[in-house]
Amino acid sequence: MTRKEYQKKYVRQHYLKYRDLYLKRSKERRLRLSATGEWQDYQKKYGKKNKMRIKERMRIYWKNLPKWKKLYQYMKARCERPNYSGVSVKITADEFKSIWDEYKGDILRCPCVHRIEDGNYSKGNIRVMEFKEHAKLHRRKKED
Fold this sequence. Notes:
By secondary structure, this protein is mainly α.
């Protein structure tokens, strides 16, 4: 057994042996901090201290996310904006995935979610289409 293999094995054994203790301690700390209201302060400090690490993690997360999932997340985020009042997402991720497959969203160059009628994003009210087609539908007409 080489030195690297031994170290890898030792670290794994150590992790498995003490994993429950680590998890218990971190959970206890989180509960203690949340009971006193210090958990938010801790999160803010962590965020300021590890800004680049968090940014890199998020970049990797979004890079590896499938297109349909990104579009679903964008749709949900858009509805949470204050100027988008009255519109909400009434569809689950699985239902959106089935609509994505129905309209063959994987082969579209720049997919976009289109609401057929004004209202909420629901299963019968949305379709996935190319962004250029969507832009043509919503283009303002010039007045003479």
